[in-house]
Amino acid sequence: MNKRTVLVTGGASGIGRGITDAFLAHGDHVVVADLATPESSNAEHIHLDISDAHQIDTAITTITRQRPIDVLINNAGLAAGSAPLTELDIDVFDRCVRVNFRGTFLMTKAVGAHMINTGTRGTIVNISSIGARQPTPGLGHYEATKAAVEALTRSAALELAPHGIRVNAVAPGPVLTPMTAGFAGNPEARSAWESRIPLGTIASVADVVPSVLFLASPDAGHLTGVSLQVDGGQLLT
Predict the structure, then answer these.
(1) Which residues form the Ketoreductase domain (predicted)?
(2) Which residue segments constitute the domains of the chain, with CATH numbers given?
(3) pTM
(4) Which residue stretches of 64-135 are H helix?
C-alpha cells in the first residue's frame, strides 16, 4: 500500500494513541490533531480544537500543503461527567455535544470537502460507542452524542459515495483507557461491568485498533455506512 496521510483527532492518548501508533507502524504519515501533545511519537502534531470551524480550516490548509489527506479518523471524544439526565449539569452536556458531535460533524464536513476538491478517494472512520444502542444510567448525554455520530456516519457515507469516499464507524464497548481509569480501577465496578460482557473482559486499546485499520484499508473497499461493534458480545445481552 502507498504511504497515506492519516489525520487522527484526539490521537495523543487512549484509543487515539493506539490508532496513531498502528498507522505509523504501517508506514503511513500520521498527523495528530489534539489539544494535548503526544509523548514520544513520530507523528506530526497540530494543536486543534475540533469544535472550532476556523481552526479546522486553518489546520487542513497547513496539513495539505504537501499532499492531500487520505484518511480521517474522528476519534476525539469525552463524557465530561456522569449523572442522571434530570441532574446533569448543562455545561457537561454542552461540552460533550461540542466535542463528540459538533467536532465530528465539522471535521467530516471540512475533510470531506477537501477530499472532493482534490479528487481523493479517501476514507473516514468515526469512533462511536455501543452506548449509541445500549443505554447505561448516568451516561445518557454521552450516548446521545454517539447515536448522533452513527447517524452522521450513515448520512456522510451516502452523500460521499459518488466521490469514492467511504465513511464507516467502529463502536467499542468499554475500553481500558485514561477516560475509564476511574471505574476500571475499582474492582467491584469493573467486575459488575464485565459481568455484562459475554467474553468476560473489558477491551484493551489493542482490541479496538485492528477494526479501525481494516475499515480504513482497501480490504474494506466495498464497505461504507457500517458501524462495527467491538464489544465482546455486550450488545447480545
Answers:
(1) 4-173
(2) 5-228 (3.40.50.720)
(3) 0.95
(4) 90-96, 104-118
